[in-house]
Fold:
Amino acid sequence: MANLHPLLKPYVPSSDDPFDSMKAAHLLNRAGFGGTPEEVEKVMAMGPEQAIDWLMDYPDAAADEEGQNDQPDFSNIDGYPKDFRAIREMMAGKTQEERKALQQQLMQANREALMETMKWWMTRLAYGKYPLQEKLTLFWHGHFTTSAKDERSASLMFAQNELLRRMSLGNFHEFVRQISRDPAMLDYLNNTQNRKEHPNENYARELMELFTLGIGNYTENDIKNSARAFTGWTHDGDDFIFREAEHDESPKTFMGRTGNFNGDDIIDLILQHPKCASYIASNLWQYFAYEELEEGLAESMGMFLRENKWELRPLVRLMFSSKGFYQPRSIGSQIKSPVQLVVGTIRLLGLQTPNALQLSFALNQMGQVPLQPPNVRGWPGGRMWINTCTIFVRYNTCVYLAGGTMPGVLGPRGLIGKGQGSPRTGGNVSGHFTPTAQGSSDEIVDAWLNRLIQRPVDTEQKKVLKDALGDVPDERALKNMVQLIMSMPEYQLC
Structure:
């Protein structure tokens, strides 16, 4: 095994650098969507290695393969087709006016199905059995991007989501092969239009630019020849198919090699490129640790990924157990994405699954709606999450979840709706936030800071919270204090 970068050496707790509650909370925030004080205590008692084992202990399986038939329920959506191949039969023999009416009915049904899919996934994000699997599914959703705004089939978006979930810690080489055959991806990047007479270069370009190599590591000629190799790759309904008659069988020159390449050959050649492994590894590090990598860190992780034959599980384990992941510059330095902010708040307050329509509206104002990345580059993330428009929506959404009001933003029916409680927290889950507290004012403030911020807070900020609480705190004062905590800049970070 190649020599690892010093920051990738294992973090070993010591008396000078213990695995304390702050580091345990950091692990739960980055490898999931945050932890309650009880979960933080559990992870702290485990120690980092055992905690990572626990978080990574999930099968390489989709949600509906877990034996629980866990999937969105489209059964009550009027007009939603069970088989999209049947649409052709539905349209056959109809007049133009009838086809137009049927198309509008299908579009409305699909919008409802997409909303049901988003609600289903938000429930899993907040209270799913495997938080790391859902966090990785969200990561890959922003990496292998497909948007429901362009892919007009909720069932195909759900199927892709399940592919991301199943492959989240799998083999990256096989992952690329499968995403290249995914019907939603084939639609989104127009490979269904890629034929030998008129090659479409969209998928070939993004495969290298965004999915595997990054800008500057390929040529325009590589794109053209790669597109020819993917001709004939399309789908019929839910199934990938290869239309041999539409495939270009002539020789292609790609990255200095010439042959009668098909799509799989192109993927093989891309993964032989020296920049591929470090590109993927650096994207993972930036998502789970911090954005600006030290010199040599990406290359070291890339070599490790290659040595492990493109298996993602060893790389992710290496990352979460490393010194670099637990260094001060990593902890509390990441601006929460809107999904992280909302899902984490729901978990920490023990709330139910939000109403999908109103939640979608709030997330849209903050810049991140699951299943709807803005473009093929996904969400920009980092400091781009915060601007003069989004910051107030972020504050107001958290305050509302903590029992406040937000007129004109989420509408009169509010944000909280019927859903599932948390099997992980085991607390009393209700549709509206009702805080509880015991002890002195100082103890109450410390307890809620420990739950919500999970990092040291200065004395002056504590004094403001204590003054808001008053000498005899009632429910109104408790809510006010919690809302003030969620309005602190520190709450926007994890």
Remarks:
- The longest helix spans residues 96-127.
- The chain has 21 helices and four strands.
- The two ends are 33 Å apart (CA to CA).
